[in-house]
Amino acid sequence: MRLPDSVLLGYLKGMWVTFSNIFKPLQTLEYPEVKRPQPSFFRGRHRLQRYEDGLERCVGCALCAAACPSEAIYLEAAENDPEHPVSAAERYAARYEINLLRCIFCGYCEEACPEQAIVMGPEYELANYSRESLLIDKKIMLVAKEEGFGAHEFGHPCGEKKAYSAH
Amino acid sequence: MNWIDLLVIPLVKIVVVLGAVLTAVPFMVLAERKVLGRIQNRPGPNRVGPFGLLQAFVDGLKIFMKEDITPSQIDKWLYVLAPFCTLVPALMLTIIIPFAPSFTLFGRTIQMGIADLNIGILFYFAITSLAVYGLILAGWSSNNKYSLLGGLRSSAQMISYELPLGLSVIGIFLLAGTFRLDGAQSIIQNQAGGFWHWHVISQPVAFFIFFIAGFAETNRLPFDLPEGESELTGGYHTEYSSMKFAMFFMAEYANMFVFSSLLTTLFLGGYHAPFSLTLFGLSDPVGIYAVLWGLFWFVAKIAFFIFFFIFIRGTLPRFRYDQLMDLGWRLMLPLAIGNAVVTALVVAMNLSAPAQTSLLFVLNVATIVGIDRYLTSAQRRLLNASA
């Protein structure tokens, strides 16, 4: 054990620690104005991805809903109109709703999805004034056509990057 | 002495000083939050107004608009009386503080302290003891075990620390030959002429004792056992809210202000500049400029001490109760008595002023080194025993 050399100098040393901290850079971010960048594997609000040509990736297989441990996902599939397809396969998700009040943000839906259609996005400011507004549907989750699918590089919690393949 | 001297001038001084102190309190709270924030690498309040300056007023406004809750099973009379018992002595103490040199206006010499008492510093000791009643009454009347414990602690602590506090300044009385704080022959005039005349040079041990005991008297960390947020949920003011709580709060900061000014007056030369401007080939300011020059140094010294109060709060953890009593009774009290005896002996030797100051300085430094050796060996023994 290290024995003290001088008690009073020890106090001064401790005081120097706090005093020098006054001049060190702040650790605080001015939060609403400045936001900390999220890591690629961050599990925020869900997004429904598209292919480059604008077609939805989701084929309405409902594996996400099956994988969801809190049963937060409701999905209704419908047949694609061959003239004006919504998704790249035979079927598409006519209704896709997630109850964010139930969602535990575990990311199992993301892992279950065979098409990498549903991914956990970077948005985390989800507080709202009504319960209804936290039942989100395709209007909110589907990324804009202009944004494409590569606008945000989504990672996997374990570090491997999901490979996005064109159809 | 006519009615102007008796009534008008004191009233003006009271209004100015009281206004200044009560305005300083919210800004001291702000400064505390800012400095504590910086110590913890965060900015502190910075949202309301430029640099968060308006936070002071917003906090005040908020606390006055809170509901004033009176618990049901309390001693109502004492419960209401207690905050006044705490705040009024704190504000009374401001009257003895000399803020700046006296000046002459329309043929009248006006001193910048409200009252130039011939008992000066004794008035401080008398009134500061009264503040204990406020705390113990608050603790008792709240009918709450935490409040009662806080009140008991505060009374024990303040009584213990008043002894070293009072005894430590005996050396200064001996050096200055008076209790008076301001005036021709006074503690402040004894320190005029440069920082080597300040009592902190000739009485460093007394300075440290007075300083540490002052932390205990103002219930500031590391001696905030009466409040003891983590153990007593707020101590004596647990049951107080709104305006009554604000009065306790204001009393704490007013006490801090008074104590800083007292430290300045007793040990740091009060409103005297640390050096004469003639050293730099300039002439010392006269008339109203001398007042402003003195006020500047007084405020600067007070600001330094208030910063130190806050800085210590951000540095040291709270003492345990037995450690508090140990420090007060077994270290500071004997030291204060010893300091008084040694100073008396040195004064009795009738040396010239520089020789007296240097002798006292050497003796004091030797004492501090001796205390350090003693504490270090005590701690080494303790650590060796536990190993």
Would you mind describing this structure in some detail?
The complex is a heterodimer of chains A (167) and B (387). With 167 residues, chain A is an alpha+beta fold. Helix content of chain A is 17%, strand content 14%. Chain A has a three-stranded antiparallel β-sheet with strand order 2-3-5. A two-stranded antiparallel ribbon of chain A has the order 1-4. Residues 155-167 of chain A have low confidence and may be disordered. The longest helix of chain B has 37 residues, at 3-39. Chain B has helices at 3-39, 55-65, 76-92, 121-141, 145-168, 170-176, 199-202, 204-217, 229-232, 242-267, 288-315, 321-348, 353-386; strands at 103-105, 108-110. Chain B is built from 13 helices and two strands; from the N terminus they run αααββαααααααααα. By secondary structure, chain B is an all-alpha fold. Chain B has a two-stranded antiparallel sheet with strand order 1-2. Helix content of chain B is 66%, strand content 2%. Chain B starts with a helix and ends with a helix. The chains are: A alpha+beta (167), B mainly alpha (387). At the A-B interface, helix 1 of A face helix 1, helix 11 and helix 13 of B.
